[in-house]
Design goal:
Chain lengths: 397, 308
């Protein structure tokens, strides 16, 4: 199997495989790759029929393209036979691995909803309350700009960071149905009024100087956007659940005493349930259809007996993440970060809809165009209507 | 007479020996030819073939006729990328040529301080494009970069996030990286110019500026052509630097052809469309190289040291 390098997951994965190999049910070998390098390499390997037995991934559009090309095993009937095993996982995690009612991957790692982070110190200085609704957000923009603090930190150069705003706004305004129609490639699905309104709200926020000056030259991969929040240059940030761990290792004191978090604010008149969330429900393991029967057997044995042992779950929680299994909940209270993990658990397990990140959910062709157009929308280079028509042109591709 | 006879016989002899040598010479070309066919021609044919197919890199390759071509040629993004590629090419040439020529003339002298400066100028040449791009990306960060480090607020611009500004930043970083190489070329070129030319010019009372325009510049003609070819054709391959520095953004403000090809192929998984861009790139590169050769090659036979 191939997995991603980088701590803490690399060690947890290594230990998990080593423990499994001692069980005598077969031997797994694991090789680690860097994130971006892996994404290109795995695709080439799968295309060339050289995939590892277990394929690590993010579910969504890419997994669907593997499934359509019969490159990954259909696990539906196997999961039916092992209902107890299937029941271990958080319910919200299966959606991104299921196409036409067939399941092609098993969730792994942590669940990563997108969260609003706040710098409490800046809120106290400004005498402001955490925002509950979009109107609060717009008022806070003026408050913080008046104090010389940027309202929102944003690593806009990475593009997917800006996209997170659209994901939440569209869900709050139009409900999950709008994106579901897009996902189903219904013609002109992007022209839905909720999409236009989403674009307008974003551009209002940009024009009101809601995002830090120069946001489009800030890259998220260097964590500069997180640094802006904990250094107090920005008061708020919309970011993935993983940013908590990043800030914790960079500024433990800030995270302990000055960080607050909440779900995305509500929007008056919006159709979406305010409990809905967006982000990455999980990472996934698929089994290569090209592997031999023996290899597949060992892989399945690893999934049932090696994945998410008690020790694995403890290790993930200790690293500040929330493993995607139900058994994790009882362990949260005793962890280092009970408050945050409990919040993430409730957010992901009680969300009526957990929308997977758009760039993962859509086909790669659509995702590339999406990121490009999102960027232009934030730069005010295109209108929301133009955004919609550009994206309509990618439907079905 | 004997001498004459042998001279008269000489051409025959040489043509004879050439004929004898022909067969082995052709055989000697063979290994290079095999490699050229295997690693240049066959992939090229493959790319042309791929441009008529639709392939996402995973499923089966299906014939798509001219589908990818019409898709790419109807996409305004393609023309934006072509226009941007040429813009970067021309502006890079306009910036790099005078700078590296003047630097090259300057460091061609023999004083010790010039040698020390020359070493400093050449440092960027030793760094890989990826390292250069990562370093500049950090330096240009509006909140934590050079401006914060040196407390110079005017440096805190939206360097990589402003669609207009980013173009000049890219030109600057490219120049920073490649000017040293071209300086080296010009330094070598200047050192080839015989000192006697300058001595006689001095006797005739020509000043430094006059010497530069009347002697140095004409004598550097072939260096200029070599350097320009490398800058112009090389500009088609600025991919790595721009990819790391801006990723083609903001929006598509720096999405040049080579980057467009990569993103279409490996991010959007449209190998057919990416192959179309690759074919366009090959033609642009070929046309450029041939065009420059023609400009430079017209009086190829003329002596470079006329009058000596």
């Amino acid at each position: 199997m191939w997995a991603l390098s980088g701590q803490p997951n690399e060690d947890i994965q290594k230990n998990s495989v080593a423990a499994f190999n001692k069980l005598g049910k077969g031997t797994m070998n694991v090789t680690f790759f860097q994130n971006d390098a892996y994404k290109t390499k795995i695709r080439t390997a799968v295309g060339a029929g050289q995939a590892p037995t277990m394929i690590y991934g993010w579910g969504g559009g890419i997994l669907k393209s593997y499934a359509d090309a019969d490159q990954v095993e259909d696990l539906t009937s196997w999961l039916k036979d092992n209902a107890d095993f299937k029941d271990k996982f958080l319910d919200a995690t299966w959606g991104s691995a299921t196409f036409d009612g067939k399941i092609f991957a098993i969730p792994c790692n942590n669940t990563q909803p997108i969260v609003m982070y706040y710098n409490k110190t800046q809120f106290e200085k400004a005498g402001a309350d955490l925002p509950k609704s979009w109107d609060d957000v717009m008022n806070l923009v003026d408050v913080f700009n008046g104090k010389g603090v940027a309202p929102f930190s944003l690593g806009g150069q990475s593009k997917w960071t800006s996209m997170m705003w659209l994901e939440y706004l569209l869900d709050r305004i139009g409900g999950p149905e709008v994106f579901n129609a897009i996902f189903a490639n219904k013609s002109d699905a992007w022209s839905d009024d909720a999409v236009i309104q989403t674009g307008q709200r974003v551009q209002e926020l940009v024009k009101a100087k809601g995002f830090i000056k120069g946001f489009s030259s800030i890259a998220a991969d260097s964590n500069a956007d997180q640094a802006l929040l904990y250094t107090g240059k920005a008061a708020m940030m919309l970011h993935g659940g993983w940013a908590y761990g990043g800030m914790k290792s960079a500024q433990p004191d800030f995270v302990k005493n000055h960080l607050a978090f909440s779900n995305f604010p509500t929007i008056a008149g919006g159709k979406g349930d305010p409990k809905n969330t967006v982000g990455n429900p999980a990472n996934y393991w698929s089994i290569s259809a090209k592997a031999s029967e023996d290899e597949k057997k060992v892989a399945k044995a690893y999934l049932t007996d090696g994945l998410f042992t008690d020790k694995d779950i403890d290790a993930y929680i200790a690293s500040g993440g929330l493993p995607v299994v139900k058994a994790a909940q009882s362990k949260l209270a005793g962890s280092d970060n009970p408050e945050f993990l409990q919040f993430i658990y409730e957010l992901s397990s009680q969300a009526p809809n957990f929308q997977q990140s758009w760039d993962q959910a859509l086909s790669p062709t659509q995702a590339d165009a999406l990121l490009n157009n999102v960027d232009q929308l934030f730069l005010l280079q295109i209108t929301p209507e133009k955004f919609a028509s550009n994206m309509n042109a990618t439907l079905g591709k | 007479m004997a001498a004459l006879a042998s001279v008269a016989g000489a051409p025959d002899q040489t043509s004879e020996s050439r004929r004898v040598g022909e067969a082995p010479l052709d055989l000697l070309v063979l290994p290079a030819l095999i490699f050229f066919v295997a690693f240049a021609l066959i992939p090229l044919v493959g790319v042309v073939a791929l441009s008529f197919t639709s392939w996402d890199g995973i499923s089966a390759i299906t014939y798509a006729g001219t589908g990818s071509w019409t898709q790419v040629l109807n996409d305004p993004g393609t023309y934006h990328a072509i226009w941007l590629t040429f813009k970067i090419m021309i502006v890079s040439w306009l910036v790099q040529t005078p700078v590296s020529m003047l630097l090259g003339v300057f460091v061609a002298g023999h004083e010790r301080y010039r040698a020390v400066l020359a070493v400093l100028y050449f440092l960027p040449l030793l760094l890989s494009s990826a390292a250069v791009a990562i370093a500049f990306k950090s330096l240009l960060d509006p909140n934590f970069g050079l401006s914060a480090g040196l407390h110079l607020p005017f440096l805190s611009q939206d360097w990589l996030g402003d669609p207009t500004l980013v173009f000049f930043v890219v030109i600057f970083v490219i120049a920073w990286q490649f000017v040293p190489f071209h300086t080296l070329l010009y330094q070598g070129g200047v050192r080839q110019i015989p000192a006697s030319l300058y001595e006689s010019a001095q006797i005739d009372g020509a000043g430094r500026v006059r010497q530069f325009f009347s002697i140095t510049l004409p004598q550097l003609k072939y260096t200029i052509i070599t350097s320009s070819t490398l800058i112009l054709v090389g500009s088609l391959t600025y991919f790595d630097l721009i990819f790391v520095l801006t990723g083609g953004g903001p929006g598509n403000a720096t999405r040049i052809l080579a980057l467009d090809m990569y993103l279409r192929g490996f991010k959007a998984n449209q190998m057919g469309a990416a192959s179309v861009i690759a074919v366009i790139l090959v033609f642009v590169g070929l046309a450029l190289a041939l065009g420059i050769q023609r400009i430079g090659g017209r009086d190829r036979a003329a002596s470079q040291l006329e009058g000596l």
